[in-house]
Amino acid sequence: MALRGLKVISEFQLTFGLFKSVTTVQILQKSMMASKLQWRGIDLYRQKSMMATKVKKTQPKWTPPKGTEVPQLKLYNSLTRQKEVFTPQNGRHVLWYSCGPTVYDASHMGHARSYISFDILRRVLQDYFKYEVFYCMNITDIDDKIIKRARQNYLFEKYVQENHPWKRIMDDTVEAMKPFAEKVRTETDPDKKAMYDRMSEKVNKALKALEAVVNNSKGQDEIQQARKALLEASRDIVADWLDSLHGSEVTDNSIFTSLPRFFEEQFHEDMKALNVLPADVLTRVSEYIPEIITFVQKIINNGFGYESNGSVYFDTPTFDQSEGHFYAKLVPESVGDSKALAEGEGDLSKDKVTEKKSPIDFALWKASKPGEPSWDSPWGKGRPGWHIECSVMASSILGESMEIHTGGCDLKFPHHDNELAQAEAYFQNDQWVKYFLHSGHLTIEGCKMSKSLKNFISITDALKQHTARQLRLLFLLHSWNDTLDYGSNSMEGALKYEKLLQEFFLTIQSILRNTASTGIAAFHKWNPEEVSLNKRLMDTRTNVHAALCDNVDTKTALDEVRELIKASNIYINKHKTDKTLPNRMLLQNIATYITNLLKMFGAIETDDSIGFPIAGTQSVNIEETVMPYLQAFAQFRDTVRQVAIEQKIKPVLIQCDEVRNRVLPDLGVRLEDQDNAPAVIKFMDPETIRKEREFEEQRKQEKEKKKKDQEAVKAAKEALDRIPPWELFKKETDKYSKFDERGIPTHDAEGNELTKSALKKLTKQYETQEKKYNKLMATQKPGDGDGQ
After folding, report:
1. How far apart are CA 745 and CA 742, in angstroms?
2. Distance between CA atoms of 641 and 653, rounded to whole angstroms?
3. Is pLDDT of 514 > 80?
C-alpha cells in the first residue's frame, strides 16, 4: 500500500510540478497516515453495521401472553331447559323477583330448600361476580288456602270455647267422619289416601278411648283428658266439617288478616335464623289491590281477558293464537292438565268452572262468595286470583322486564306459566322474564315432602336438630336445581364436611398462635413442598371459579375445597413428623381463602379472619384473655397425666380424660393430646359440640338398633332352620289331619285328601327345609343338640 502511494505521488509530482515545498518523505508519511485513518473508519463502520445487524436478529418480537379463556357465568334457564350465558340488560344491574311464601302455616324445609338456595345464588352473583342485584320478594296473604284455614281455625277455636260435653263432641266427630269417609273412598292419589287412612285411624282410636273411659266409669279428670285427646285427634276433620256448615257466616275481615300476619312474622324469623338475607323490597298482595285492578283492566282492554259473572278470566286460547305470544313456555306439555289447573285455581273456586270460555282459562279476579274477603272493583266485589298477584307486584317494582325470576320447581305450571302470559299480555312483549330459575324438589327420607300430605318438617323443628350452618352446608353440597333428600344420611354428609372444615380451621389457628407473625421470623424459605401446595391453592381458585361459572355449582366448589384441605393436612402432618414449623403465611392464605368463600356462601356470618366464629363471642378476645390460663392448665394436666401414665395411676388418668372429653368441651374448649408434645388447644362453639355429641350418640344408637335387628332376623332364621323337616308341618293341625312317614301332610283339617299340586308344593317346602336343616347341623359342634 505504501509503495503504491509513493508511486502515485511521484508521477503526480513529475507531471504537474506541484510539490515544490514538500519533500517526498513527508508526502509519503502523510499518505500512509491518511490510509490508516481511512481503513480505521471503514473498520468502525463495518463493526457498527454488524452490531446493528446482530441486535436486529436476536431481539424477539413482543407478543401478548396466551392466557386461558376465562369462563363466563352460565345459569340453567327453565325457559330454554339448558344453561345460558348470563347477560344483564343494563350493565351490571340485575333485577330479581322471587316468589315468596303463602303464609297460612309454619315455614317448613321446603321453604328452606328454595330460599337458602336462592340466597346462595344471590350472594354469589353480588359478592363474587360483583353484580348489583336488586331483590324483590312477595308475601301471598290473600289466597284460597289462607281463607279456608283462617275460617277453619276460627270456627274450631270457637267450638272448643263453647265447651261442649263429651257426648256432643263424640256425636259431632262421628258426623264429621261421614263426609270425610266419602273423601277417603273417592281419593285416587295413593299418598293422599294413605294420609286420610292415618287420620281416620287416629280419630277412631281416640273415639274408642273416650268411649272406654266413660263405660268404665272413670273419674271426670280421665274423661276430660280423653275428651281433649279426641279434640286434638279430630281437629282437621271437624274443622273442615264446621267450615262446610258455617264458613259462609264468617264475615269479619280481621279473621283473614291476622292469620297471614302471624305466619309472615314467623317466616321472617325463620329466614333470619337461617342467615338468609332480607329482600331489598317486600310486597304483600293485600297492599296492591288497586294496582291489580288496573292491571286486569288493561289485560281486558288488550283483548286477553273477559268478565263472567263478576269474575275475570284470562283468555288463554286467544293469547296463545296471537302473533308473538305463546302459552305455557315453561311446561307446554302440561297444557290441559285438569288436576294442575284446578289446584292453581284453588279449593274455593271449584264450582266456577262453567263460567270459563275454555277449561284452560284461569282467574284474574274472583267474585267473592259469603265468607270470603272482598274489595270493590269494576266487576263487583271480589279478590285477586293467585297468579295475577306476582305479575302485578313484580311489574310494579321492576318494570316491564327483569333478569331473574325464581321459585320452586312445583310452581312452573300453572303458576309461573300463567304469570308470564299475564305480564306479556299486559306489556305486549314476548320476554317478561329473561332467566327463570327453579329450585329442585325436597324429599324427606326419600318420600315426597308435602304440607297437604302432612309430610313436612318445620324450620323451627329442623333447627332444633341441626344448626343453620349445617343446613346450609347440606344445600351447598347439592346442586340448587336438583332434587335434594333431607334425612339422616344426607345430614351426616353435611356434618362430616363441617367437621372437616372445623378441624382444619382449629389446626391453622393453633399453628398461627404458636408461630411468629411479624418480622423476619414470619417468612420462611419455600421448599418444593410449599411451591406444590401453593400451586394446589391457585388451581383450587381456578377450579372454584369455573364451578361457580357453571350454573353456580357449589358442590364442585366444595369438593375442590375438600381436596385443598387434604393437601394442606398432608403438608402439616409432614412437618409435625419432621418436628419442623410449617410455612405460616402459606397456611394463613389457604385458610383465609376458604373462610372468605364460606362467608360468601353465607355459611359464616361474622368478620372473623379465619374459621367459624364462636357463638356470642369474639374469638380474638377469647385467645387474648383466656389462652394464658388454658395454656397453664393444659401444661399442668400434661405433667399430671405423664406421671399417671408412668406410675400407672388409673383413677388419675380417668379424671384427665374426663376433663378433656366432657368438662372442657362444654365450655367450648377442646384439648388434643400429642406424643412427646404439649396438648393442642382448640376453641369451639359449645352448642356445636353438644349437637355433634348428640348426633353421634343418635347414630350410635341407630347402629346398635340395626345390629340388634339384624341379629334378631338372623336368630329367627336360624330358629326356623333348626326345625327338623319331619316336624315342619306337624303343629299345623288347623290345616292338616294326616301325615306320611316323613311328616308331609296328606289330608287337610277336614280329612279330605290333598290334591297332587298341593302335595307337590308341600314336598318342595319339605325338601327346602331339609337342606337348610342339614346345612345348619353340619356347622354345629358336638353337644349343641340336633333338634331331636
Report:
1. 9
2. 6
3. no
